[in-house]
Structure formats: structure tokens, C-alpha cells
Write a structure and sequence with these properties.
Elements lengths: L1 H14 L6 H10 L1 H23 L11 E5 L4 H4 L2 H4 L11 E4 L10 E5 L16 E5 L4 H7 L6 H4 L4 E4 L7 E2 L6 E2 L8 H7 L2 E6 L9 H8 L5 E4 L19 H5 L1 E7 L3 E2 L5 H5 L6 E5 L15 E2 L6 H12 L2 H11 L2 E2 L3 H17 L1 H4 L6 H5 L1 H4 E2 L11 H6 L3
Helix pairs in contact: 8-13, 9-12
Bound molecules: 2-acetamido-2-deoxy-beta-D-glucopyranose (5 copies).
The site of one 2-acetamido-2-deoxy-beta-D-glucopyranose (NAG) has 3 residues, from loops.
Amino acid sequence: MQCNTFLNYKRKWFFSFLPLGTLLLYLISQLDRPHEIDEELAWESAVCKNYWEYQHSSVLNKSKNTYLITWYQMSSYIRWREDAVARDFKQCKYSNCMLSLCPHSANNSDAVIFHGRNIPKTLTYKRPPGQVWIFAEDESPLTYDYDGQHWRSENWRHAFNWTMTYDKSKTDIYLPSGELWPKKVTDRKNFYQIAKNKSKTAIIISSHCTTESLRMEYVKELQKYIDVDVLGTCGREWHCGKAWIHDDCFAILNKSYKFYLAFENALCRGYRTEKFFENFNYDIVMVARAGLGKRDIIEPRDAYISASDYSSPQQLGIYLKQLSENPMEYAELLQQKSNYYYPGFGEFYQRALCDICERMNNQDKYRRTITDLVKHVDVEHSCKKPKDVEPEPWSIFSWFNKKW
Ligand SMILES: *[C@@H]1O[C@H](CO)[C@@H](O)[C@H](O)[C@H]1NC(C)=O
Ligand SMILES: *[C@@H]1O[C@H](CO)[C@@H](O)[C@H](O)[C@H]1NC(C)=O
Ligand SMILES: *[C@@H]1O[C@H](CO)[C@@H](O)[C@H](O)[C@H]1NC(C)=O
Ligand SMILES: *[C@@H]1O[C@H](CO)[C@@H](O)[C@H](O)[C@H]1NC(C)=O
Ligand SMILES: *[C@@H]1O[C@H](CO)[C@@H](O)[C@H](O)[C@H]1NC(C)=O
């Protein structure tokens, strides 16, 4: 099952290239496959070890009214966050649920969570009567529309009970990449001095260069007005942190840079990059470019600058330039944002788990079948093309790179 997923991914990638050096690319794709498969297998044997242990414990004894919930393939987004993976139901109002990350427990589960992009072509077991199916995705529909293919098929599109996504406007179980919470105790820092000490203007760290949101095109426009250092695949090398754990090299956000450009790879309703949240707690002013428009924004508004308030990168660039030359005004923004913090993804994942367990205990209240998942996802109306920047002239590179 796991191997299949990767093959499918490669196959798509491979076909979009067909007219070009097919053989060479095929060989390259063969080269990087073993690593991914090894990682998958290692993960599976680790999580299934636990599962076989559970099976021999009394926890799975159904007479005790415990609901077993299985992740058929946990998304790497969650998997790579230790703070999330360690969560369970102990602190929930309904705590009689158990989570298994081992796909082999799916046939024996009361609910199964499927990761949209990685839904397999066919299921390896027969759905037991009454088993609840949850469709989970952390990326924008543009991504799983592109990367995944099976969720749209007849086998799957009429079968799910609930969704678990970031799109509050329609999801059953709300799981955002983050939220900003008010601080109980405010910081006493010399924000003016912090502002004075910063010598650089803006930074963007990103790994995908050709995006639906025309992120790099937008950055190029901004660079006519302010300095933007581009780090990651689309710019200078950046090897800091590991699997989303930030290390000391992120200190440059505290010390050197004034603005962090947390720009989305796609402009979709409710979709905000985890980078916005995961870099929020540094002493840096965040600039977001996300969502469907002016009303689809991250709350609270006074915690950051939103590109949606500016009609063009030029307007935003002029504002950022003026701010960067005015430490007093800039320090006020730092002060304002310091009233909020990002508590870590684990909090939101925990809330979603508790929500699932409450639903399992009250299935009649939440009973539902999504009659058509494709209509429900509604890619066309969930995302928009950017209007504030023009695409680069068509090039073969932008075509085959087209991916989040
Ligand atoms: C499951 O529960 C039943 C009744 O409460 C009990 O007789 C049985 O021994 C339990 N099985 C395990 C494996 O704990
Ligand atoms: C579920 O599948 C596993 C193998 O993957 C098997 O050992 C087990 O007996 C099955 N359980 C049920 C309830 O069908
Ligand atoms: C600003 O820089 C000076 C000189 O490097 C340093 O002593 C001071 O601690 C810095 N202040 C803040 C608030 O970072
Ligand atoms: C950056 O500043 C924040 C907030 O003051 C602090 O908690 C954090 O430890 C600093 N991080 C680094 C890498 O210097
Ligand atoms: C889940 O969907 C199935 C298939 O449509 C249905 O039989 C079942 O009642 C649903 N359960 C819940 C809790 O919505």
C-alpha cells in the first residue's frame, strides 16, 4: 500500500515529462525511491509494534465501549511533529477512544482516518458495517487534486462520513495548521531596541518555487521596493532545523530581519501556511498572503500585515519600506503582535482528536455520509488565481515544476 502511493506519485510526475528525457528521469526516480520506502517501512514497523501490543491488552476489549480509531496512513505533516504524534484522548471530555497509527488495525476499527492524497486505489480490507470513515487533508485542494488521484474515484467519493481539514467553513472536524492565542502575560521587552538592532529587511524561506499563488513572482515585484532575502530551494541554501524543529539558526529572525514573508503556495479558502504560525513567536513582523480575499484572513488582524490589504506588491512594498525606515512605528507592530502567540500544532491536533472521540460517542447526532466528495471539495470555488501579480512568460520549466 505504502509502496503504491509512492509509485503513483512518481508516475504522475513522470508522465508530465514524457516528451523530454524520459529514460533519464525514470532512472532518477528509481534512485530516490528506496529512501522513501525505507522511511515508510521503518515508520510502519514502529507503529505496528504498538498495535500488536494493544491487541493483547484489554484495551481493545469492545465490551468496555472503547472506540478504536486508526490512521490508515498518517500524513507526514502530523507524523513529523513529535508534539502531535504523542497526543491521545486522555485529556478529552470523552476519553474512551484509542488511536492506532498502524494500518493493519483498520479492519478492526470503529473509525478510520484516510489521508486524502494517499488514499489507495483499493482497500485491503472490507469495510465493517458501521465503520466511520474520515477524510483528512492538511494541504490545499489544489495539492491533493494534483498529487492524489484515488480520492476522486467512484470507490471513495460517496463513502466518507466526516472530513478533517483546515477549512472551517465546511469541515466536520476542524484541524488548522495553527491559530494565534492571546498571551496571559505580556512581554516586557525593549521593542524599540530590538527594532533598531535589525539590519535586514525581509526574508522568505521556501522550498517550492513555481506555485499556483505566483509567490516568487510576487516576491520579485516586492524586491523593486525592499530587500528580500530568498532562502531555500528558490534562493540561497538553507539547512536549518530538521523536520520542522527550529534550531538556533532561526535566531536571525529575532535579530536581523524585520519582516517574515509567510506567503502561501496557493490562495484557497481558510488555507494558511504552517510557516506563518511556526515562525510567529520570533520577534519579527509577519506578512501573510493567504486565503480567498479580504474577508478570509487570519485572526486577529492586529498581529500581522496582510498582503490582501494592498492592491499590489508595489503598494505593499512601499508600506514595508516606510516601516523599515521607521523603527518607532515598526516597534509598535512588534509590541502589538507580542500580545499573541502560537501554542504549537499539538494543541490543534489534540482538539481535533477530542472532537473525533466526542463524535464517536454521539454518532446519531453526527451521522452523515458525504454524498459526493468531489463536489464537497469543490476545487474551483475553494481556490483562486492571484490577481495582484502576473505570471512569468510561459516556460517549460514552470510547466513541469507546477506543483504546490
Ligand atoms: C474482555 O471483557 C470481558 C467481559 O468484561 C472479560 O470476560 C474478558 O476477559 C476481557 N478480555 C480481555 C482480553 O481483557
Ligand atoms: C484484520 O487484519 C489482520 C491482518 O492484517 C488480521 O490478522 C486480523 O485477524 C483481522 N481482524 C479482523 C477483525 O478482521
Ligand atoms: C542590540 O545590540 C547591542 C549591540 O550588539 C546589544 O548589546 C543589545 O543587547 C541588543 N539589544 C537587543 C534588545 O537586542
Ligand atoms: C527568539 O526570540 C524568542 C522570543 O523572544 C525566544 O523565545 C527565542 O528563544 C528566540 N529564539 C532564538 C533562536 O534565538
Ligand atoms: C457512515 O457512512 C455509512 C455509509 O454511508 C453509513 O452507513 C453510516 O451510518 C455512517 N455513520 C455515521 C456515524 O455517520
